[in-house]
Predict the structure.
Amino acid sequence: MNAPLSRREFLKASGALLVTAAGPVFFDEALAQTAPGGVKPALVPNELDSWVAIGADGRVTAFFGKMDMGQSLDIAIAQIVADELDVAVDKVDVVMGDTALTCNQGGASGSTGIWMGAKPLRSASAEARRLLVQAASAKLGVPAEQLRVDDGVVSAVSDPSKKSSYAELIGGRYFNHKVEWNKATGNPMDIKVEAKVKPHTEYRVVGKSFVRRDLPGKVYRTEKYVTDVSVPDMLHARVIRPTRAACTVAGIDAASIKKIKGARVVRDKDFVAVLA
């Protein structure tokens, strides 16, 4: 997963089309964003917009470059982003593992999904909050240290009537803000920002139990996965494995499946598969 050739570079070179989906995916807010001149910042790790977006309605979209393998990363990432940005968890949507919308954080990676994969999202969310509070300070004429954020609304501590929401401050637009990237891809990918992430004592939702977002789609079979893809003349393969390890292929009787229309045998030394 950490090879020099990125997933995106591989796909461009091979001409292949990768389609992946897991859990609820919401693209509307993120894709509706507009920057000065209508130019979207490049999808690179050192752009804050590659990690987080604020929609015109104030909803937050987090771009997470990993996939879920049943460990419920979606809601966990939403909790982390919600805590750093001071918004409600149900206002955070998570886009996972889409090579057109997320940076290459190395697939699913099992147990590293949170402790490594969430680090850039945590930092990016903290930096986005810092910039939004800074913008509110200029708009309201109140020093940043005298402002607080409650569910995406920045207000003056001394006068709550002086307030501005995230939607008003940047909704539907890009941050166009650089962050420091460690030049790594896959699991080690990380960024550094000016903002400081919150200490665990200030967490409101991280560590608490929330309803998993992926379960309804799995239970009622409404989610689409790679295995659901079907195209005309599509072939399916089954690897032929020996009954025990360290075996070699002694021979193949391809005629044994000749009655199956379209079936064929593929062999590469001791690797054998049947396609049909």
The chain has two domains: 7-226, 235-275. The longest helix spans residues 118-140.
